[in-house]
Amino acid sequence: MAGIKAEVNPEPSPGAFPRLDSTHLDQGQTNAATMALFSNAVWKQNGSSNRLKQLGSKELAAKCALSSLNQFILTMNRHSALVPSAQARIDRIKAIIARKKDFQVLVGFLGSTGSGKTTIVNALLGIPHLLPCTTGRACTAVVVEVSYNKSSDPLAKFRAEVVYISKEEWSSELEQIFEDTNSEIAGREGENDEPDTERVERVRQTLDKLRAVYPHIKSIESLRSTTTFDLLNHNAVCEILGGTRSIELGSRSEFSQAIAKYVDSGNSSKKKFAQWPLVKLVKIYVKAPILENGITLVDLPGNSDSNAARSGVADTYIRKLSVTCIVANIIRGIDEKNAHDLLEKITKLNLQMDGLYNQESLCFILSQTDRDFEKPKYIKDNPELESACSVDIQSIGNDQKKLKNLDTEGKPYKASLSKLKKQVRDLANEIVDIIVPVSTGQKRRRISVNEIEERAAEANVPSELKPLLEQLMSKFSKAQGDAARSEAKLASIERRKGNIELAQYFTRSNIAAKCIAHRNNLSVAAIRKDFSKTLQEMGRDRVGDLQVFPVAATLYLSYSVQQSKRVAGFQTLADTKIPDLKDWLIGTTIPTRGKYAEAFLREVETFVDWMQPWVDDQFSDTKMTTQIRHHWEPQVVTAVHELSRKLSVLAKEATGNMHQILKTDLYSRVPKAERTAGAKAAETANIWAGLHWSTHKCANRGLGFWHDSKGADHKWNERLVHDLKAELLPVWTSTFTDELPKALLSYENEAKAHIVEFAKLLIGNPYRADINDALEATHEHILRTQQLHDHQSTEAFEEVKKAMLGSHREAVPAVKTFLTPMYEKCAMEQGRGHFQRNRTTHQIYFAKEGEAMHREGNKAVAKALTELLDTMSTKFKECNDTTTNQIMDEITQFFEQNSSDGNRSSGRRVVSNAKKTLSADLLSDIKDLATFWAKNDPVQVQAQSEDFDDNDEDIYDDRFVDVDKLRGKPRATDDDEDDEDYEDGSSGED
Fold first, then answer.
1. CA–CA separation, 619 vs 616, rounded Å?
2. Does the residue 582 lie in any domain?
């Protein structure tokens, strides 16, 4: 290369890897040296029984590995112009980084309005009052997503993105509002002169919401005087519709105040423009420990809003949840009779069909366990609890007697003390009259009782008054002594009473704890029994207990931030059960996070091992000749192409097998399910016939959906589809839980067999004698690609399977479309008797078309399943390409590193100074990685956002290892002061 002086047979650069002796290492020895270098890596050691500690080691090592890969790129980019072979290594690093996935798990909180979801979210974050919540009313009006804040800016400790509904969405809602307030339509829709109370209440609620956005609208009359066009183009409204707004603040209190107007439906003024009705989503970013490793908390609003845009966002989030937390207020009383009502049956069935109705993906949270209830009555109603509390109850009774006796004992002393104090005051006044005489009409001088003796001794008293003074002083001293003794006795009695009352407090707290625990245990048992029953209906066995957490979130936050007075039954933070909930949520992420981290670490280790011979420039003294390479390399390359072809065929066969499983196991059961569910449609319509005529009419007008004035959702299409899903649930579950994973396992095993076959073909080549060690190392590297292929194919399968599990939702819009003519006909009915005509229309339609309706729904589901499963073949091909490309890289490097130049058979090769410099720099980078992996010191991993002088984009993570620290060099840092309102990691219902 021009400008570089070539050197022949240079001495090898001093490397970071162990040397067996002073001679050059061949590739096989290098592989062993690499393994030795990383043998002390902490993440490889499984000595700890603490799963979270093991995971922490792996994730810390992965952060360092990612930083090292980026450092490798920077190092090689500095030399790539003079060392062109570096580009292939850079490309492979980019591919590894691209395959690394950030772990994210969405945890959603579902529950009725006022159940305490928001307070629980605040408690899990450990940040009091972050999200607005007020006892006694619904607060959260929009979906709120809370994720980790990666910003290091002290003025952006708290960030938010407010997403507004679109102009079209707001226009649709306004049109509905105008239709509701149209008096002419209201008159035509009346039924037998009965007033439409549903419409009246609905209009009132609508008007309240409109006033929040448009304060100038005072009444229905003022609303009718305007138009949808006018309201859409209102200055304050049109500026924000369809847009987003960012908020960044360093203070928690300022941030909470800033976001309240976008989240809190009660944060409105009659005179000011309120924005919450126009907001459909708020994304919040804070530095809470529970979020640091990929957990995102989603606070979903209760059933208090009819906004279609917000409902759509909520439904989308529910589909994406990894963990669903059902929140219910324990005050309502939960037993075997109503446990099944905690989870609305459509939501419950959707979770089952989504594959999320299991111990890993579902939990129940019973909120407000600290709310007081009538414990004596509760004990009386539960005889077993009365027996458990009998000793404590008796102890309280005995203590009450002791207190009564002490009160009796103290009464004489109280009476005596009162008389003695009066006597002391009277004597003191007589003594003052003697020692400080005053003229008639003047006021007596005030002298404290404590000064009497001193002033009497100093006073110049006439001789004729001295005997009287001495007599008075004697009485005064005696009265004071008697009063002091009475006070001491009363103080002793009060101390004894205080000790007894303290004992009573702890006894009562113990009783309260037993009552709370008893109520909690009954509720937990009822919920778990219903869960087990549901699993049986699904054809699944219960593995472990469902997690149910009775929590006191408000107390947890109160106890965390101040020395609050302890509430009976809750003496510690642990008693609130929020720490248990937090630990479980984090625990659900451990297996997947560990799998992600280890797969990445293994790939980095394999890459370093693969790159090492090129880095060291240490080639064996014996190499294959150009002639041997000329004959051998094309054969190996052809074999790689053949492997790629076999894997491609295998991917198509696997996808075909999965299609056959759906056809045999699932689709074959559909006709019977359609007949059964179709027969139930008319029965379901009979239930709707019992609704108020106005609600029935509105549900028809809404094409099978209506959110009434009482906050109830009428989901007719979902209810109809529910009957079909319920019939198919057991086979649906077994297909996705058992049969399809078996097909994946078969595919993975056959793919590994092909890779092993190729590796054997390579190692069995007759040319291997001269480069045996290098060939053995390449053979081992190729066998390792089995792990890469397994990991990627499993990941691809799970991604597609999750989408396929959600395809059952396609039935609802298909059924809605099928029933639209019926709905529209009923919506057009007017006048006297229209309700009966609509009910008759439903009965006739469902009796005739019930089965056909479900057939249309199933067609939509089958179409979605087919399309999604077809993508499986493409994703498997991508996995195969990644694997074969890596194998081809191994083969290319093998021939490059183990072939002589030209016609020479000598292993000596000309190496440029640029390559020597690059090798030295990379060896230093690799040694830094090995050093960190051996120490795994979290102090050495720092989150940084640096600007790199490099043209490559989108390959750098914002977290890097402090390399200077690893090398022992000092590095200046800026210490950010914690905000006075909030400290990271602080321990901490709507």
1. 9
2. no
Same domain (yes/no): 361, 447: no
Task: Give the residue from 514, 531, 550 where a domain finishes.
Answer: 550
Tell me which residue has tokens 């209810």: 719
CA distance 397 to 906: 101
Range of the domain at 235: 105-379
User: In sequence order, what are the beta bridge partners of 367?
Assistant: 329
3-state secondary structure 141-193: CCEEEEEECCCCCHHHCEEEEEEECCHHHHHHHHHHHHHHCCHHHHHHCCECC
* Distance (Å, whole) CA 323 – CA 588: 8
Rounded Cα distance between 165 and 173, Å, is 11
Are residues 454 and 336 part of one domain?
A: no
Q: CA-to-CA distance for 812 and 820, rounded, in angstroms? A: 12
Contact predicate 363/325, CB 8 Å: yes
Q: Does residue 817 contact residue 697 with C-beta atoms inside 8 Å?
A: no
Amino acid at 589: T
Dihedral sign from CA coordinates of 631, 637, 640, 644: negative
* Cα–Cα distance for residue pair 496/516, rounded to 1 Å: 30
Residues 528 and 645 in one domain: no
Interstrand relation of 547-550 and 362-367 (parallel, antiparallel or unpaired): parallel
CATH number of the CATH domain containing 340: 3.40.50
Which H, E and C letters describe 387-452, residue by residue? HHCHHHHHHHHHHHHHHHHHHHHHHHHHHHHHHHHHHHHHHHHHHHHHHCCCCCCCCCCCCCHHHH
How many angstroms separate the Cα of 960 from the Cα of each of 14, 70, 779, 918, 929?
Answer: 26, 9, 33, 21, 12
Tell whether 857 is covered by a domain. yes
Same domain, 672 and 785: yes
Amino acid letter for position 156: A
Helix 834-897 / helix 693-701 crossing angle, nearest 10 deg: 40
Secondary structure of residue 274 in the 3-state scheme: coil
Which residue carries 């009160």 as its tokens?
407
Are both 269 and 406 inside the same structural domain?
no
Q: What is the largest CA-CA distance in the chain?
A: 145
Closest CA to 276 of 265, 287, 292: 265
Task: Say how far apart CA 292 and CA 325 lie, in whole Å.
Answer: 20
Number of domains in the chain: 3
Contact between residue 280 and residue 310 where contact means Cβ atoms under 8 Å apart: yes
At 859 the three-state DSSP class reads helix
Together in a domain, 300 and 386 = no
pLDDT means per 10 residues, the chain with 990 residues, are: 34 34 40 66 76 86 93 91 86 89 87 87 94 63 91 93 91 82 56 68 78 83 85 88 94 93 70 82 95 91 62 80 91 75 86 91 92 85 87 90 92 90 86 72 65 77 83 88 91 93 90 90 91 84 87 92 80 92 92 88 89 67 76 92 96 96 95 95 93 89 86 90 94 95 96 94 72 82 91 93 94 96 92 90 95 96 96 93 92 83 46 80 91 75 40 36 37 37 39
Give the per-residue pLDDT at 808: 96
Identify the residue whose tokens are 């606070």: 299
Fill in the amino acid letter for 876: F
pLDDT of residue 288: 95
Give the DSSP letter of residue 282.
E
Q: Quick: pLDDT tens for 313-331.
A: 778 888 889 899 999 988 8
Q: Are residues 360 and 398 in the same domain?
A: no
Residue 987 carries which DSSP code? -
The answer to whether the CB of 556 falls within 8 A of the CB of 123 is yes
What tokens does 829 get?
């009915």
Q: Give the pLDDT of residue 609.
A: 86
Q: Is 150 helix (H, G, I), strand (E, B) or coil?
A: coil
